[in-house]
Amino acid sequence: MDGTEHQGSSWKQNKWIRFLTACAFAVMGGFFFQLIHMPIPWLLGSMVFVLIGSKVFRGITFYWPARIRNTGMIIIGYTLGLSFTASTLVQIGQQLPTMILFTALLLLCAAGIAFVISLLSGIPFPTLLMGSIPGGLSQMVTLAEEMKGIDLTIVTFLQVSRLIMIMFCVPLLIFSPLFHVARSNDAAVAAVTGSEGYMGLLSHLWLFAIVCILFALIGQKIKFPTAFLLGPMIGTMLLNLSGYEGFSLPTWVLDLSQIMMGSYIGLLLKPENLKHKLKVTWLALMNGLVLIGVAILLSLLLARLHDIPVVTSFLSLSPGGMDQMAFIAKEVNADLSVITCYQLFRTLFIFFAVPPLLRLVFRSVLKVNRTA
Questions:
Q1: Closest CA to 335 of 315, 307, 317, 305
Q2: Which residue of 52, 219, 247, 324 is surrounded by the most CB atoms within 10 Å?
């Protein structure tokens, strides 16, 4: 009897079984969300079904390798890189002061929200601040591990739950009457390439594939933020600007990249490890909603300053990540290059400037507490 139980347990812990089970739930989620006409269905559907499945079927521990997530990010990075042209770079140079201003405003608002929530909840301000910085999940979690007195579980939960909220709320807002947009026709977009386009795609595919993978690995080696996204994006951008023509990927490849990303994110959230679940969940909900509200107000101001569509400005300032905003932008035909630049600038600012600033703030807070 013990041997049978051990054999059953061994079968359930097999990596292939765990991975294929997660795949089955991810695909079911994508089909279901597509059936009910949800925006970015393969990303949201896979994320939700994998998250629920991993909590309901506790006998099998779902498994999703980071390499598959990284492959999805390389595909997204290639797509983002295609949107850059020489005229785009000129436009970005003109908007650089605005990027600095709006990034600073968004981060200051996040700090203000964290301060108010800290007063209301009694949770230390440094922990809430690190959980509230938008678009810096990996950087903030890594920094939180290095700092004393930071509750890593709360930081991770706030960052991941905000990411999940944004992935749901932003698409629903974009397709609501508030923005008056319609989805792009994927079939029509895919049909533009035609048979000649796909032959051209195959002839250049090897070059773009090698460059994307190479730049991703170099980015990882030099510890670049989100290397598997930014590396391929920079590599594709350089090839595109040097005269090599890239082609839009087929719709099914983009859907597959959504599954690769969504399933991984679905397994990140582990509410069972959280103390005071109700309290922290309420804080995460309030934090995310207020940040989205701030992003909407700032996007209206940005749209007026630079005469760009509100959808593009909102996706540029949304407190999520480039990959999620890129998926939504593709569906509404927003300006990918502008969105990517604003999101990229904020990512780099968070990576290089925010950690030393946070250390300075935390030292000041500690000195004040000691004096008191």
A1: 315
A2: 324
**What's the mean pLDDT in 259-268?**
85
Which pTM value belongs to this model?
0.72
pLDDT band with cut points at 50, 70 and 90 for residue 314: very high
- A 10 A CB-CB count for 32 gives 14
**Nearest alpha-carbon partner for 332 in 117, 203, 194, 172:** 172
pLDDT digits (tens, 9 = 90+) for 14-46: 788 889 999 999 999 999 999 987 777 898 889
State whether 97 and 159 are in the same domain: yes
90 and 39 share one domain: no
Integer-rounded Cα Rg, in Å, for the chain is 21
Show the domain range for 191.
67-371
Report phi then psi at 198, rounded to 5. Answer: -70, -30
36 and 141, same domain (yes or no): no
Give me 105's structure tokens.
């405003």
Going by C-alpha positions, the residue among 44, 109, 48, 23 that lies closest to residue 317 is 109
CA distance 129 to 365: 12
Examine the domain organization and report whether 142 and 272 are in the same domain.
Answer: yes
Burial class (CB in 10 A: 0-12, 13-18, 19+), 95: buried
**Greater pLDDT, 3 or 147:** 147
Q: Is the pLDDT of residue 142 over 70?
A: no
By the 8 A CB rule, do 4 and 236 touch? Answer: no
What is the average pLDDT across 213-220? 92
Tally of structural domains, the chain = 2
Considering the domain architecture, whether residues 20 and 144 belong to the same structural domain is answered as no
CB 298 within 8 A of CB 106: yes
Q: Which helix (H) or strand (E) holds 48?
A: helix 41-56
Cα gap 109→269, rounded to integer Å: 25
Answer yes or no: do 194 and 47 share one domain: no
Nearest to 77, CA basis, from 208, 166, 168, 181: 208
Sign of CA dihedral 107, 109, 113, 118: positive
Q: Which of 178-187, 189-198, 313-322 has the weakest average pLDDT?
A: 189-198
